[in-house]
Amino acid sequence: MGRILILNGSPRAPKSNSKQYAEIFIKKCPAETKYFNITKTNHAEICDSIKLVSDLLLVFPLYADSLPVTLLEFLKYLEKHHPKNKPTVSVLVNCGFIEPQQNDTAVKMIRLFCSKNGYPFGSVLKIGSGEAILSTPFRILVCAKIKKLVYSVIKKRYLTLSVTMPISKNMFIRASTVYWENYGKRNGITKEQMETMKIEDF
Amino acid sequence: MKLILSDKHINILLQKNSDIELIDLSKCKISNCIGCFGCWTKTPGKCVIRDDAVKIYPKIAASDKIIYVSKIAYGGYDSVMKAMLERAIPVQQAFIRLLDGETHHLQRSVAEKTAVIIGYGNIPDEEQDIFRELISRNAKNMNFKNYRIVFTTEDKLEQSVEKEVLKWEEY
């Protein structure tokens, strides 16, 4: 069983949902794992650790339909500092929309990075409704899929998986409205204020 | 309003009294989005990071004609443009709607756009295909009424931008 390096590419890594997904992965993984939040200053340190692993798991949220800049910057650094032994790269990506397939373009970008730079590509888990799903009873579905992801990586039987809330889109919209309304309420902001059409003061 | 948003300096001559604004993002101070959701849930429509991005995203929102100029990285925008686009999420609301059968964020006061996206670099076919897919997704989230994608090399970039600007000036 090889070692797995898990990289969190979320811009708010320490408080991110991506961190929670990574923690579930680590909890369910019988192999040795090492975890990093990607920051602007630890690219070299991460590259040192990549040398020592058989698998790399990139965990990140979808940002503006693609990879967050945090992750993009790291990939550009890695491209210039390849380890001798390149690990297999797997992906755990989440978006706030109900459709996990909205993550497809980001996955293709990682695949392209891998094929361009000679990294074997491994498994994928695409999560829809990823902003809120962990705080709902559907958490159990996510945990089950992450467990599948774990075993696909350690057994090297790579898979493409996806998970989302098993509800209708209209119900998702209603639930997400309540979720965001409550988020605003905690900051003392009403739904009406959140719905402002103004951008800055225009 | 017509806007050219470029990730590098472009030496093009705009007509006097032109209503075209050219922003060179490489000269701007734009920090990365920190994913705090402040622009949706604390100060709606305003980013909590008060750098140059806060002057730019209202202009993106107000533009009905826009040219994005960006180097391509792994089939997406390279870091300079991507950082700006991530910082432009105050133009959207947290709330979700259905658009073409898919869930997307509601927009604030964002003009419908005719967009031209000029991607430059040495871009193999596979990378071009991913970029096309990305832009088709962006179109839904950035309020593109219609769009065109132009691929070019860095040495021909200014000519490509000039050609597009000329089309604006003709109409």
Characterization of this structure:
- The complex is a heterodimer of chains A (202) and B (171).
- With 202 residues, chain A is of the alpha/beta class.
- Chain A has one domain (4-165): Flavodoxin domain (Rossmann fold, 3-Layer(aba) Sandwich), CATH 3.40.50.
- Chain A contains seven helices and six strands.
- Chain A has helices at residues 17-28, 43-50, 69-80, 104-117, 139-154, 169-186, 191-194, and strands at residues 4-8, 33-37, 55-61, 88-94, 121-127, 160-163.
- Chain A has a six-stranded parallel sheet, with helices on both faces.
- In chain A, helix 5 (139-154) links the parallel strand 5 and strand 6.
- The longest helix of chain A has 18 residues, at 169-186.
- Chain B is α/β, with parallel strands linked by helices and 171 residues long.
- Chain B has a single domain (2-170), classed as Flavodoxin domain (Rossmann fold).
- Chain B contains five helices and eight strands, in the order E-E-H-H-E-E-H-E-E-E-H-E-H.
- In chain B, the strands form two sheets. In chain B, strands 1, 2, 3, 4, 7 and 8 form a six-stranded mixed sheet that branches.
- Chain B starts with a strand and ends with a helix.
- The mean pLDDT of chain B is 96.
- Classes of the chains: A alpha/beta (202), B alpha/beta (171).
- At the A-B interface, helix 3, helix 4 and helix 6 of A face helix 2, strand 4, helix 3, strand 5 and strand 6 of B.
